[in-house]
Amino acid sequence: MTPPITDATGAPTQHTRRSYLGWLLGLCSAGVSAILAVPLIRFALYPLTAKTTETKWSDIGPSADFQEITTPIQRLINVEQVDGWRKQISDKVVYVTKTTGGETCVLSSVCPHLGCSVQWAVAQHQFVCPCHGATFGIDGARLGGPAPRAMDRLDSKVEADRLIVRYRYFRQLVPGKEVIG
Amino acid sequence: MNEPERGPAPKTGGLFHWFDQRTGIDEILRKSLDEPIPGGARFAYVFGSALLLVFISQVITGAFLALYYVPSADHAHTTVAYIMKQVSAGSFLRSIHAYGSSAMVILLLLHVTQTFLYGSYKGRRELLWLSGCVLFALALCMAFTGYLLPWDQKAYFATVVGTNIAGEIPFVGAWIKNAMRGGVDMGTLTLSRFFVAHVFLVPAAIFSFIALHVYMFRKAGAAGPIHEDPLTPKLPPETFYPRQVVIDALFALVIIAVLAVLSQFLPFDLGPKANPADTRYLPRPEWYYIPIFQYLRYWPSSLSFLGVVVIPGVVAFLFASLPFLDRRMERRPWKRPIAVGAYVFILLALFGLGAVSYRNDRLDPAFATQLLAQQKAAEEFSQQPFELEVSQTSLASSSAAPTDPLVVAGEKLYQAQSCGACHGDTGAGTAAAPKLAGIKTRFSAAALAALLRTPSAKMTAGGMTPVTLPDPDLAALIDYLNSLK
Q1: Residue B301: partners with Cβ closer than 8 Å, 6 or more residues away
Q2: Assuming Cys at both sites, which of B116, B140, B389, B452 could form a disulfide with A86, CB separation 3.0 to 4.6 Å?
Q3: Nearest Cα to A15, choosing from B35, B21, B26, B241?
Q4: Cβ of A18 under 8 Å from any chain B Cβ?
Q5: How far is B114 from chain A (nearest CA, A)?
Q6: Which of B394, B395, B485 to mutate to test the interface with A (most CBs of A within 10 A)?
């Protein structure tokens, strides 16, 4: 049918030449593919090298406002959470208060029991959860009731004379403080 | 099935032997690499494998892009901007994918032209040719559906025009148009439909037809040079491997290099998000659709049946049935004046139409300025830093919705007066008119009122009309404008 196939050269060394070329071609293709894979891998692994989810620091107010406080102050903060290409903006309630050492600290108002909003009871001079009656001291320490731990303290710092906080959610019903988002 | 193990494999190439016994890879490789090419390897035969290479590149880059892309009118543009501006190598990969579509069209034209001029469709190759025609159409479908996905101005308006053309078809046109759009107007359903076609349906069809096309090609055999007998080749053949493989690989390197350099140094642009209210936007399709776009302009709606359906239909039919019509075994182009003449005529006509379109756009001052403004807007948007999309579920505080009754009244007036058509729905600005958000910092209320009553010469030239509302309404409108951030 078809005439016998010969290489252009037809030399006796054909076999070794061809396999040498095969290795060379294979090696070159592997090299080029490896180079081309670099942008693909960088693209796919971008979330590992950059912060794609983060909670931005929220402003509470001038730090001077909280120097002399004797009872916790409730503040509404604007929380901006970045999630890939979108962000969620929400309002959260926090308490600015003092630790026993007199240091300013910021507490989440979410009860570590079942997540109700803890209130400052002026008359009792303690935090009281309206749902199941958990009580906490002025620094958020657990006093009584069903809560498994103290009120959750949030990361806060003073920057350019303003008190800022990073809002977090913590797992409920567990004795340890566990960040969940 | 239960063939017993035959002891240790031979020492030379043990692993390969093990693998070969289970897959028959050796024979497959031999068959594909030892494919005989009558008359020997040539540069002219590279386009088929180059198309396969670019298609595979499109599949890989497309799958990776889908890691971040969201096909919804709300998020498509944001996610593409995220890919372009934030994700590592995102601009590069998207550009490879976008330029890849142009590469596909160029290589398709070269592949078809080579096949046509060499008469390689002759000699029991009708089905090979037909499967190629289907692949051609599918590739154009991919280009058309993929173009919409970034949901920028260019994409949106080109698709408005594209689907409108389908609407020109008599009797069934409106139905087809609505089926493509998923409704009467373009919207998020259109995007979903185009996405599904682009990512699932058309690629599945392309895979099947590539398999068919390659099978038919191997069944018929390579046709060889123009003086070869396409049925019973007489020239001494050379195997596909090594020379043709090396030539194909070198051409592949050239394509990769061109795509990579273009994508790195001239990233594909992304314009501002689609604004359906922008009535001035001049839609222009991607370059390979420009000739068709120009051709369709010559047909008044009374003759659209002839221009949109009959003529392209006849041309496509004649093209597809070529191997049935041209049954002589003669392959030399100069001995086939009718076929080659018709092909060259169509190619020249397409080039000519494209040239006329570009020339018209350049010579008409109104078009030229608008197209330049659109180009500028796209470049500007590409330069701006990425802005995160505010999630709809945000419990955004009072700042989101205006509560001041005057501002609310002003917003209604803004909508009623169609200010948004040029300045954008929330005063964000478009290619046609500047943004109004933040105008408070540039003009006092009184100065703004005076400008709205009697626009400056520059504003009038840009298409701004004087506002003729009664004073209290004008005050409300200004309150609204000042509330825009």
Answers
A1: B168
A2: B389
A3: B241
A4: yes
A5: 24
A6: B394
In a domain, A179, yes or no: no
Looking at the partner chain, which of A46, A86, A91 has a beta carbon nearest the beta carbon of B391? A86
Out of A6, A8, A91, the one facing B243 most closely (by C-beta) is: A8
**Residue A90 touches chain B, beta carbons under 8 Å:** yes
Q: How many domains does chain A have?
A: 2
Indicate the residue of B75, B87, B395 with minimum beta-carbon distance to A46. Answer: B87
Count CA atoms within 13 Å of residue A150 on its CB side: 12
Q: Phi first, then psi: give them for residue A90, nearest 5 degrees.
A: -145, 160
CA distance B339 to A93: 79
Q: Please indicate, yes or no, whether residues A63 and A101 belong to a single structural domain of this protein.
A: yes
Is there a shared CATH topology between the B31-373 domain and the B405-483 domain?
no
Instruction: For domain B405-483, give the fold.
Output: Cytochrome Bc1 Complex; Chain D, domain 2 (1.10.760)
CATH, range B31-373: 1.20.810.10
pLDDT tens for each residue of B228-282: 999 999 999 999 999 999 999 999 999 999 999 999 999 999 999 999 988 889 9
Taking contacts as CB-CB distances below 8 angstroms, the residues of chain A near B88 are 42-43, 45-46, 49-50
Per-residue pLDDT of B427-482, as tens digits, reads 877 777 788 888 888 888 888 888 888 888 888 887 787 888 888 888 888 888 88
Please give the angle made by the CA atoms of B380, B185 and B410, to the nearest 5 degrees: 65
- Contact A7/B at CB under 8 A: yes
Residue A1 within a domain? no
- Given an 8 Å threshold on Cβ–Cβ distance, is B246 in contact with A21? yes
Q: Which domain holds residue A134?
A: 53-166
Chain A residues with beta carbon closer than 8 angstroms to that of B236: 3, 6
> A181 and A169 in contact (C-beta within 8 Å)?
yes
Instruction: Note whether B395 contacts A91, CB cutoff 8 Å.
Output: yes
Q: Is A54 on the interface with B (CB under 8 A)?
A: no
Closest partner residue to A43 (CB to CB) among B64, B241, B253 is B64
For residue A116, is pLDDT > 90?
no
Task: Name which of A13-27, B62-76, B138-152 the model is least confident about.
Answer: A13-27
Task: Examine the pLDDT at B6 and tell me if it is beyond 80.
Answer: no
Q: Nearest-CA distance from B388 to chain A in Å?
A: 5
Contact list in B for residue A39 (CB cut-off 8 A) is: 89, 92-93
- Which of A43, A82, A91 has the CB atom closest to B89's CB atom? A43
Handedness of CA B48, B54, B60, B65 (dihedral sign): negative
pTM score: 0.80
| Residue owning tokens 């570590």 | A112
Q: What is this model's ipTM?
A: 0.78
A117 within 8 A of A130, measured Cβ to Cβ: yes
Q: How much is the pLDDT for B472?
A: 86
